[in-house]
Amino acid sequence: MSELAPLVNAQYGVFYVTQREENETVLELAASYGAESKAQLKDKFELREGLIGQAAADKRAIVLKDVPPEFVRIGSGLGHATPANVAVLPALFEDDVKAVIELASFGEFNETHQTFLDQLMELIGVSLNAILASSRTEELLAESQRLATELQEKQAELQAQQEALEERAEQLSPSSRYKSEFLANMSHELR
User: Fold this and answer.
1) Distance in angstroms (rounded) separating the CA atoms of residues 32 and 2
2) What is the largest distance, in Å, between two alpha-carbon atoms of the chain?
3) 109 closest CA partner among 42, 163, 61
4) pLDDT digits (tens, 9 = 90+) for 103-150
5) In degrees, to the nearest 5, what angle opens at C-alpha 15 toward C-alphas 12 and 17?
């Protein structure tokens, strides 16, 4: 946010990343720029909640011009003012919302800014998807390694049990042979 906001002449910005919680999708605050206080920022948005949630649900940008004074205030040590424009931009990957950025500016977002932001949001969508895929791959690899270790432990346990059974069978073998011989002798004598 610290690099993006100045590039498009924005004085205020927030970045929310999509999180999946069971069957619910929420957008969690990941970064901010120019906020007067952290307490003013909302930590989470659900789909269709506020403009952040609405942009995520609709999967399209929302641009506000001539923002009312109560909407948001941009402040510094010298004063406070209302922005002229607010842009709420979803980052998509294959029609799935990965994040939403909201920017506020004292001036208009010109056509160059809009083009840049559109391209940036595509790049953010691709990048976040790659990060999530890599993270998921790491989780699956760790789970696979855990299962392989567990399988090796079970195999060692089964091997030990098999060896114990073979040892017991060897101990019983002479006894079994003596019984067979005894029964054969008895059968022979009884005849």
Assistant:
1) 8
2) 121
3) 61
4) 999 988 889 999 999 999 999 999 999 998 898 899 999 999 999 999
5) 170
The count of other CB atoms within 10 Å of the CB of residue 5 is: 19
Q: Burial code of 112-122, b = ≥16 C-beta within 10 A, e = fewer?
A: ebbeebeebbe
Q: Decide if 50 contacts 42 (C-beta within 8 A).
A: yes
Cβ–Cβ under 8 Å, residues 98 and 92: yes
pLDDT reported for residue 36: 72
Alpha carbons 124 and 118: distance in angstroms, whole number? 10
| Residues 62 and 51: beta-carbon distance below 8 Å | yes
| pLDDT tens figures, 158-172 | 999 999 888 887 877
pTM for the whole structure: 0.72
DSSP string, 165-185: HHHHHHHHHHHHHHHHHHHHH
Look at the block and give the residue holding tokens 């510094």. Answer: 76
State how far the Cα of 86 lies from the Cα of 127, in Å rounded to an integer.
24
